[in-house]
Amino acid sequence: MDSAQKKHGTAHVDIQNIGGIDRTDVSFEPGVTVLVGRNATNRTSFQTALMAALGSDRVSLKGDAEEGHVELSIDGETYSRALNRDGTAVQTTGDAYLDDPMLGDLFAFLLEDNEARQAVARGGDLREIIMRPIDTAEIQAEIDRLRERRSDVERRLDEIDSLKRELPSLEAEKRELDDEIEEKKSELSEIEGEIDHRDADIEESRQTANEADEKLDELQETRRELNDVRYDLETERDSVAELRSELQELEDERAELSEINAGELQRIESDVERLRSKKRAVESEISELQSILQFNEGMLEDVDDEILSALDFEESEQESVTDRLVPDDTVQCWTCGSTVEADQIEATVDTLRELSRTKFQTVREIDDDLEELKKKKRAIQQQRQRRERLDTKLEQVEQHIERSTARIEDLQDRRDDLTQEIERIEETIDKREDEERSEILSLHRDANQLEYELGQLENERERVDDEITAIEERLAEQRDLEDEADEIRDEIERLRTRIDRIEQEAVEAFNQHMNEILDRLGYENLERIWLERVDSEVRDGRKTVSKTMFELHIVRTTASGTSYEDTVDHLSESERNVAGLVFALAGYLAHDVYETLPFMVLDSLEAIDSKRIAKLVDYFQGYCQYLVVALLPEDAESLDADYERITEI
């Protein structure tokens, strides 16, 4: 047993109408408590009543009673169970020490019919007993759920790996598009310069072709507007990118702020008001104490023999005067009128002073608590204000993004409209232009085509940018997903090994303690009793499955020293009882029952001789804080005299 486990104090059990007990109450200390008596002296009834208080339902009412109860008090806590007869059944209600009695029933409440003891004695399924408290089906279901989660996480990680492989080609495509865009812009700039030069040459003959010139002016103006729209579009896209970056930063900052618990703030305000009320009450008490102290101190300082001789002790004056001093260091109490020693009054005044100092200390402690609560309140309020400011800013940025996105869509529509308008103007000019103007018209057409191609390239680059951004966002999830996958794998491994660990610990505990106890008890020709975990092929319906079993081995030696393996059936009743008790102890330790239940109950040890019982009890008491064992008087004589004994129940 872990020495760091909580140490318990005196246990008190109050029993009424349980088993063969009418009414009894018993107290016992941690350690071994021996219930000494012959058969039919209510020792087992006491043990089953204690088990009921601890949580077991293996309890019966007294034959002539309709109701009963048991109450266990320990460490300032009380656990009570009530029994009521309902026809042939007994209903049990109340708050027991254990929420679930299974571990206690299997491994701590070791009466004669205990399942762990009986499984050894009758060659039962020992592994089933050890593993019964473990919901193996639920563990397997949880493993299956975790595997599904792991598959989903791994699928997402595979997607990210695939996206990572796409990223270099997208970045290369973006660089190529950037180069093409710059090349188109350079070509467009050259054509625009040529158009401006041609426009200057044509100016002299403009009067002869006013209509054509007007169309050319319209074409040039439309192209300038298209340039402006393209510039505005690029500017707006840059603005959206910056806004999205700012939005992400705000969302990250917002995510770092914990949720504001309105109930916590309300609780703090309630605690502040409660402490303020308490402070006012204490300050009122201090004020009253100070008044009493000042009055008493003044009376003790000012009264002298001359004043005393002049005092008139009429009854009416006694009610209004609070301090009477008499000669020879005696004082007439101004509260009750009796004569007391002055030292007694001064001692009372000292007590009042000490009480006043205690009250002042209480006020200081309340002030400290109030200041701490105010700090928490300010912190919560500041966090709330910060969240509100962030929420407002987030809303503003989102609105800006919406407006900019809408503006981009409008500019794209305007760009398309202007491109179509330029084509229409060019068609008109084409019909009217002479050979001299056909060249400039061709330049305009080339410029318009470049504008269109430039727009297509910019749209394609925007698409590639969006894909790169989306991949980078997914890549940001990779570390979290990898951590999640590791956690899932660890949890699956923990669940897988939990069953193996408990099986292994139970087997190791049994073998270790069995060896130690056999060495102590000294059974002749019984060399060893040990458990082995084996995997067997068994039929499960139409299938053959592998199943873990616990095999119990008994090794004996002949008079000549030869070892041979025996069977459980050939064990003596004493040996069988010892093996069953050690098997229960192994389960007690493998499931850490001592962490939640410091009690163990032993009964029906008559098949074991007195000296071996003493050694067995001495061994078991090292693994639980309360060992309650029922013994016959002759068996009890062999136990340590320091063990607590209860002879009447």
Automatic annotation (TrEMBL):
Basic and acidic residues bias spans:
174-206
Question: Per its UniProt record, what SUPFAM superfamilies does this chain match?
Answer: P-loop containing nucleoside triphosphate hydrolases (SSF52540)
Alphabetical list of PANTHER family matching this protein: ABC TRANSPORTER ABCH.3
Positions the record marks as coiled coil are: 363-512
What this protein is called in its record is Chromosome segregation protein SMC
Region spans: Disordered? 174-216
UniProt similarity note: Belongs to the Sph1/Sph2 family.
InterPro entries attached to this UniProt entry = P-loop_NTPase
The protein's UniProt keywords, in alphabetical order, are: Coiled coil
Which organism encodes this protein? Natrinema zhouii
